[in-house]
Amino acid sequence: QVQLVESGGGKVQGGGSLRLSCAASGSIFSINAMGWYRQAPGKQRELVATITNDDSTTYADSVKGRFTISRDNAKKMVYLQMNSLKPEDTAVYYCNAEIRTRDWRSRDYWGKGTLVTVSS
Q1: For residues 35 and 51, is the Cβ–Cβ distance under 8 A?
Q2: pLDDT grade for 120, boundaries at 50, 70 and 90
Q3: Can you tell me the distance from the alpha carbon of 62 to that of 17, in angstroms, rounded to the nearest whole number?
Q4: CB 58 within 8 A of CB 50
Q5: Residue 87, Cβ density class (10 Å: 0-12 exposed, 13-18 middle, ≥19 buried)
Q6: Mean pLDDT value across residues 43-47
Q7: What is the pLDDT of residue 84?
């Protein structure tokens, strides 16, 4: 069984910063791509940023230059540094990872999410 657990969400004023963390645990053989998605109230879940196991990154246009994704393969963790936060960044942020388990099965896993609230 695999778990992804996010942490680091909270309330912050516009212009502030937060750092989200996500820890993967369980019967993991390897982790391929990892990423962050978000879902604002009344909206669909959207991609925020992804990072491959060789540190290639992609970002949504709305967060480029403000957010930075990184990972620690030894710790099985992925991070999202969020700077210059805006009220429109308010959402539940979900961690995602493509994981191959020790029984050699590979699929996407999701965390339960962490709420980020940015006030104006």
Answers
A1: yes
A2: very high
A3: 16
A4: yes
A5: exposed
A6: 98
A7: 98
At which residue do the structure tokens 């750092």 appear? 19
Residue 22: CB atoms within 10 Å: 25
Closest CA to 119 of 7, 10, 6, 8: 10
Average pLDDT over the chain, rounded to whole? 97
- Six-digit token string for 74: 């030894």
pLDDT band, residue 43 (cuts 50/70/90): very high
pLDDT tens digits for 77-116? 999 999 999 999 999 999 999 999 999 999 999 999 999 9
CA distance 38 to 20: 12
Indicate the burial class of 74 (C-beta count within 10 angstroms; 0-12, 13-18, 19 or more).
exposed
Task: Please report, as a single letter, which amino acid is at residue 7.
Answer: S
Beta strand pairing call for 106-110 and 91-101: antiparallel
Which amino acid is residue 53, in one-letter code?
N
- What is d(CA 120, CA 115) in angstroms, rounded to the nearest whole number? 16
